[in-house]
Write a structure and sequence with these properties.
It is a single chain. The protein is α+β, with helices and mostly antiparallel strands. The protein is built from two helices and ten strands. It has one domain (33-167): Lipocalin (Beta Barrel), CATH 2.40.128. Helix content is 18%, strand content 53%. Strand 7 and strand 8 form a beta hairpin.
C-alpha cells in the first residue's frame, strides 16, 4: 500500500512538472488593443449621415476571431465589412453596394479610441476611375457612441461621409 502511495505521489509531481514546463514554453499571445477596442462595438446601432438613417450591427463570429459589420440603408440595401486581427493590427474588407471589395489595414495611433484604416487593395474594380472606399476612421469615445468616417474615391476625387452611431442594443 505504501509503494502505491509513493508511486501516485511521484506521478502527481511528474504531471505537475510537465504541466508547468508546457506553460513556460508557450507564453500567452500578446493582446491587440485595436481589436479589443473594436470588440466593444458588438451590438446594434442607429446610424445617421447627411442623407439617411441606417442600422449598423457588429457581430463577433468564428470564435471571436472575426467581426461582421452590416449597415442596412432603407431603400438601398446592405453593406458588409468583415474585420479580423492580424498580429498587432486589424484588417477589414468592405463588401460595397458598388460591387467591389476594398481591403483596409489599421494603424495604431496615440488615442486608443481612434482606429484609422488605410487603403491596401481593391478587388473587382471595373476601371481605375470606378468609385470605391479608400479609408475608414473609427472614433469610439465611449461604450454607446461612435462615428465612422469613410472616404470614397471616384474618378480620382475623394469625398468623405461621416456616420454618427448611437447604441440601441
Amino acid at each position: 500500500m505504501r509503494a502505491l502511495r509513493i508511486t501516485a505521489l511521484v506521478l502527481l509531481v511528474a504531471t505537475a512538472s510537465l504541466a508547468l514546463s508546457a506553460a513556460d514554453s508557450h507564453p500567452a499571445a500578446p493582446t491587440n488593443p485595436m481589436w479589443e477596442k473594436m470588440k466593444t462595438l458588438e451590438g446594434t446601432w442607429a446610424t445617421t449621415n447627411s442623407e439617411a438613417k441606417a442600422t449598423t450591427t457588429y457581430h463577433l463570429t468564428s470564435g471571436g476571431s472575426a467581426m461582421v459589420m452590416t449597415t442596412t440603408v432603407p431603400g438601398e440595401g446592405e453593406m458588409t465589412t468583415v474585420f479580423h486581427p492580424v498580429g498587432q493590427t486589424v484588417v477589414g474588407t468592405h463588401y460595397c453596394l458598388a460591387m467591389n471589395q476594398p481591403t483596409f489595414v489599421a494603424s495604431p495611433g496615440a488615442d486608443p479610441g481612434v482606429i484609422s484604416f488605410a487603403f491596401k487593395s481593391v478587388d473587382n474594380l471595373k476601371t481605375p476611375g470606378t468609385g470605391h472606399m479608400r479609408t475608414l476612421l473609427l472614433k469610439i469615445p465611449d461604450a454607446n457612441h461612435h462615428t465612422q468616417t469613410w472616404s470614397y474615391r471616384e474618378k480620382g476625387k475623394d469625398s468623405n461621409e461621416t456616420f454618427v452611431a448611437e447604441r440601441t442594443k
